[in-house]
Amino acid sequence: MSEHYDYIIAGAGAAGLSLACNMVDGALSGARILLIDQDLKQSNDRTWCYWSDQADDLEHLVYKSWSHLSFLNEAHQHGGALGSLTYKMIRGEDFYEYAWSKLRNFPNVSFRQERVLHYHPTANGAGVVTNRATYTGRFIFNSCMLPKPDPGSHFLLQHFAGWWLETETPSFDPQRGYLMDFRTPQKGSTRFFYLLPIDERRALVEFTVFSPSRLQPSEYQSELKTYVEQLLGISHYTITEHESGAIPMTDQIMPKQMYPNVINIGTAGGAVKPTTGYAFSRIRRQAAQVCAQLESGQYPDSKVKSPGRFRFYDRLLLNILQTRGGLGKGIFSSLFRYTPIETIFRFLAEETKLQQEAKIFLQLPVPTFLKAVWRVFGAGKATPRQKLADATEKPPVAWAIPVQDKLQTP
After folding, report:
1. Alpha-carbon gap, residue 309 to 315, rounded angstroms
2. Residues 6 or more apart from 148 whose CB is under 8 A from it?
3. I want to staple 198 with a disulfide (CB 3.0 to 4.6 A). Which of 8, 143, 202, 351 is the partner?
4. What is the pTM of this model?
5. Percent of the chain at pLDDT exceeding 70
6. What are the residues facing 264 on neighbouring strands?
7. Residue of 161, 162, 159, 199 lying closest to 177 (CA atoms)
């Protein structure tokens, strides 16, 4: 006989733990909650970054923050002060410890270190089968399984590898980081480095690629070595930690549920911004939204609200990155050269007005985007409105792809 819970959270990463913490912080604190994950989540397996213009409830977890970030290519450096915004970093191990220290205070919250195999509907909710047992609950919240890619949608990976460096002598300005450093051969795809200094001798540096598939592990390491030693001019350093991962970049409409009462959250629930990979703030908003719905007796809806015009922008950029990947460098160069970096961040957070967005697009290579419009919505193809409607009305897709162990959210 299977164990029964009020809520089962399959996946104890940022999405699952955020939802569980919201539950115990409010009116659901007495509910029987089960978290399932094949990993104990005790290591610094990933780093999350986000930006904000105010303090939040996780401020005590911020490992480092920056008020200046720059864009670089061979000819120019742009960006600088973030205005009223602050760019913040939270390390995975700190977030996990914070969440579990909270959840351990509630004897009604349980954890099973098991691998999720599949879900199924039940008379009173839904069930989950793991490699060791079967559990049932009123609702299951899934962040373990991703849908198979829809061949009618764009699909890329933002894949990366990073080093946590410690140098023998002062080598960094701890107040200024590089959001994108394009001083590297593009090789037909969009490639750049990401440098976040912690202090004068410590920094996180990552090599990032937008392309349909990952590189060989040795290529990431070779690119990092070249960047650190030749472009940064650092010859004596120690690699204290490694990071690697891949984030799906897709305009595929993620179904809100797999089955009745199996609700998708996190990456599976569409929380990742398609063209950037940023998701931490969206995941936290999603968790608060779902929890509020449960508290008020509503059926949970995990959909992350996004104005239609931003989905249109995402679709065009994804088309360019997927079909003309080598053009990405020029697009980002134009974006940062002519637009204040604070405005860029607010645009990425979908907080800008249409007039601001028009000014941004007028500074970009217009012919490149017009060609993308033709490729996506050309003769004989559906209009943007029709495409979005069709995607929303499609029947549930086959769910069989587990989230990668090292899937990360920058």
Report:
1. 10
2. 397, 398, 399, 400, 401
3. 202
4. 0.90
5. 92
6. 142
7. 199
